[in-house]
Design goal:
Helix 1 packs antiparallel against helix 2 (about 40-60), helix 1 (about 15-25) runs parallel beside helix 3 (about 65-90) and helix 2 (about 40-60) runs antiparallel to helix 3. The radius of gyration is 16 Å and the shape is flat. The protein is mainly alpha-helical. It is about 55% helix and about 0% strand. The chain has helices at about 15-25, 40-60, 65-90, 95-100.
Amino acid sequence: MSEFDFPLPPPTFEFLVFSLKAQAEVSLGIPVFGVEAGDVNLLAARHAIDMLAMVSEKTKGNLTMEEQRILENSLTELRFRYIQANEQQAKGGNKVEAAASGDASAEGKSPE
C-alpha cells in the first residue's frame, strides 16, 4: 500500500455537494482541508457555483430535506463569498481569506 492509497468516501449526494463547494472555495482563495489559500479565480469559482445551481435545478423535488438543506446552504454561502471576492478584487485587494473567516477588519469595517 503506497502513501497515496487511502479509503475513498462513499459516493453520496452530500459528498458531491461538498466536493463542488470545496472546489469553489479554493477558487475563491479560501483555505480548504489543509490546502493553503491561493490566488482568487472568479471564473473557476463561478463555474463551480453554477454547477451546484444546475444540480439544484435538476434535482428539485427529488432530494431529502437534509440534502436540500445542504445544497441550499452551500449555494447561499458560496454566492455571498463570491460577491465578497468580486468586490475585493474590484478594489484591487485580495483579502478574501480574512473576509471569509469573518474578520471584519479585512474590509475596514467594525463588527456590529
